[in-house]
Amino acid sequence: MSKIRIALIEDHDLTRVGIRTALQQKDEIEVVGEAANAAEGLKMLKMLQPDIAIVDIGLPDKDGIELTREVKSTTNAQQLLTKVLILTLRDNKEAVLAAFAAGADSYCMKDIKFDNLLEAVRVTYNGNAWIDPAIARIVLQQAQQNPQKLESALVDSKTIALNPDSFENLEEIPPYTLTERELEVLQLIVEGCSNAVIAERLYITVGTVKTHVRNILNKLCADDRTQAAVRALRSGLVG
What we know:
five-stranded parallel beta sheet; single chain; alpha/beta
């Protein structure tokens, strides 16, 4: 099985080392390069063409959002295969919408737990978006306040859960369609927990969690966990 090739672009040495050390604990992941600023990072991405670039927004020489835009707008077809996972402390609305408008594939906060970071990497690698629950709430608020602006900002985004069409008729999801246990699992999904963490918290097996997740996706007509989380928040099924 081929490994997930990751490049890190982060100016804080300790943070970068910590992320690298955490990722290298998994045999499925290979950290192929590191950079401390945008200029070095862009050169590295063009040369190594990793599967995923984990990019910090607050780079010293250029905003990580602008770097993402450059990576996504390059004319090199191969370079477009690199997915961008934003990892940052900034969760304000402007930064979030700007990151997705620039073409970011996933958006995580720096205080993310290790298990959730691994899940974010896997989800992003598989072509889907992983959105931190705090970020999902920001996007939902924007959708409620100004759907047209959201649609304009995210016109090129691959994030299914951020497509304004996904919000249609979501208030009509009746809470009684989900069992009490499914609602508990759904709440933990919204909080960004992996199947293993959900199993530990609810004292059930991972296999049972997978069954609940499958039932939740079917009942919410969701394609993946991220879309299920957004629909759950939008419809008020969970808080």
